């Protein structure tokens, strides 16, 4: 549609407005120069349920609550100190993946395996160790099965296009009653799961240790902030919910694309339209008037793949990042930003998890390629890179079976 209607267009979808931006200069305006005006998030009937009407951080409007939540989450998750503290643990979890592949070398080097499942366990362990100092035993661990099931149902219900008719046309909303009840039921069971198995355990441990308790994971920091009256018990649970949706699958999808076609985050990025932005008041963009409360999406995928800005965009040519002129550039938060390449967004609502995601991604792919040659299984010449998307995610449609051959023909230890 961007090719037909241009770098900015407005769609009227029932009672809602949707603006789509597909130009680096306009992306600069939405995310940076007018970052405050466009710094809110639209919600809908389903996201109201999954965020408790904006008690979380990812989907809340731009304002005091968002600032407080982002500040409280930064200390235990998004600093260089955290990266330094946990990088050894990330290495351990990746080594366990290599060990498991080596232990099953007969099968993985001939038939191959669906590597996603093992990487998913690794990423859950990385994030749950950081959050709760807890980990899952294996892919068969009942708590792992339950956590992944809850999160996958949450993603399917929230990302489906099935409920849009009732969201866009309020008159039709009564027909959504069954769908919304399903969402409410899932959300209360899912939050109870996080609370009973993880948050309450940390609370108990902190209460038992009293003054002597040493803060040893993100949840301890967050409970501490709640005890000081900065946030509520509900906010604590919504932070856990946000990390479960924002951190794990996004990083996993990037790994799957990286294994399947090397140039991850540009050719395929897990959130190709970023998380939608919204202007609370009427605003101007590229000379047009954007009505208040318009959902504004930045087409990051097209910015990163438009032949107008990239030479042969479908080719794997990493040197393009050094050779090609970046077009719209700006200094944001001390760094130079090329507005053609925004897999994590930029500015106020940009992804704070970039500080964790990039080194974890690098470590995992580095470890796999230094230990194994990776191939498509016998038969197909290439891995199938068909795509499947939801309201704002894009992932590989068929999880790839990958054959892992130890480098040099002998088993390399992790
Ligand atoms: C490769 C992995 C990841 C990708 C591609 C990614 C991408 C994104 C994008 C595109 C946004 C929205 C930016 C915008 O709206 O302008 C976002 C927001 C966010 N991401 Fe990530 N992300 C990744 C991993 C993570 C991780 C590991 C964490 C946490 C540990 C995380 C936490 C968040 C949070 C909390 C937000 C909401 C920020 C806000 O609204 O203020 N992400 N991410």
Automatic annotation (TrEMBL):
Quick one: which residues bind heme?
A: 351
**Where found?**
Membrane
List the record's Gene Ontology CC terms alphabetically: membrane
This protein's record includes keyword Oxidoreductase: yes
Record's keyword annotation contains Heme:
yes
The GO terms this record gives for MF are: heme binding; iron ion binding; monooxygenase activity; oxidoreductase activity, acting on paired donors, with incorporation or reduction of molecular oxygen
Q: Name one Pfam family in it.
A: p450
Listed A to Z, the keywords are: Heme, Iron, Metal-binding, Monooxygenase, Oxidoreductase
> What are its cofactors?
heme
User: Its family?
Assistant: Belongs to the cytochrome P450 family.
Give the protein name, as stated in the record: Cinnamate-4-hydroxylase
Instruction: Specify the species.
Output: Actinidia rufa
């Amino acid at each position: 549609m961007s090719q037909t209607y241009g770098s900015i267009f407005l769609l009227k979808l029932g009672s809602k407005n949707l603006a789509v931006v597909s130009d680096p200069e306009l992306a600069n305006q939405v995310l940076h120069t007018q970052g405050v005006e466009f710094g809110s998030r639209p919600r809908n009937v389903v996201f109201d349920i999954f965020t408790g009407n904006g008690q979380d951080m990812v989907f809340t409007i731009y304002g005091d609550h968002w600032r407080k939540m982002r500040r409280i989450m930064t200390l235990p998750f998004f600093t260089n100190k955290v990266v330094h503290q946990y990088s050894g643990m990330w290495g351990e979890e990746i080594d366990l993946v290599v060990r498991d592949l080596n232990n099953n070398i007969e099968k993985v080097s001939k038939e191959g395996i669906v590597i996603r499942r093992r990487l998913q366990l690794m990423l859950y362990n990385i994030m749950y160790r950081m959050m709760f100092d807890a980990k899952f035993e294996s892919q068969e661990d009942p708590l792992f099965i339950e956590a992944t099931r809850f999160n996958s149902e949450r993603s399917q219900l929230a990302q489906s296009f099935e409920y849009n008719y009732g969201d866009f046309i309020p008159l039709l909303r009564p027909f959504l009653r069954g769908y919304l009840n399903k969402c409410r039921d899932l959300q209360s069971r899912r939050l109870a799961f996080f609370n009973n198995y993880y948050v309450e355990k940390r609370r108990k441990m902190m209460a038992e240790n009293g003054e002597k308790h040493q803060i040893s994971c993100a949840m301890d920091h967050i409970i501490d902030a709640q005890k000081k009256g900065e946030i509520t018990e509900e906010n604590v649970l919504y932070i856990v919910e946000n990390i479960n949706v924002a951190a794990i699958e996004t990083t996993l999808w990037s790994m799957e694309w990286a294994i399947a076609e090397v140039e991850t985050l540009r050719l395929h990025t897990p959130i190709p339209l970023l998380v939608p932005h919204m202007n609370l008041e009427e605003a101007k963009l590229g000379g047009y008037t954007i009505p208040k409360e318009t959902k504004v999406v930045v087409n990051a995928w097209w910015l990163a793949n438009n032949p107008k800005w990239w030479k042969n965009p479908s080719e794997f040519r990493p040197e393009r990042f050094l050779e090609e002129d970046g077009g719209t550039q700006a200094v944001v938060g001390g760094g130079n930003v090329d507005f053609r390449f925004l897999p994590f967004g930029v500015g106020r609502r940009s992804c704070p998890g970039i500080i964790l995601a990039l080194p974890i991604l690098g470590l995992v792919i580095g470890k796999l390629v230094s230990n194994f040659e990776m191939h498509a299984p016998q038969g197909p010449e290439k891995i199938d890179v068909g795509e499947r998307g939801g309201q704002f995610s894009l992932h590989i449609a068929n999880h790839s079976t990958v054959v892992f051959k130890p480098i040099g023909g002998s088993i390399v230890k992790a």
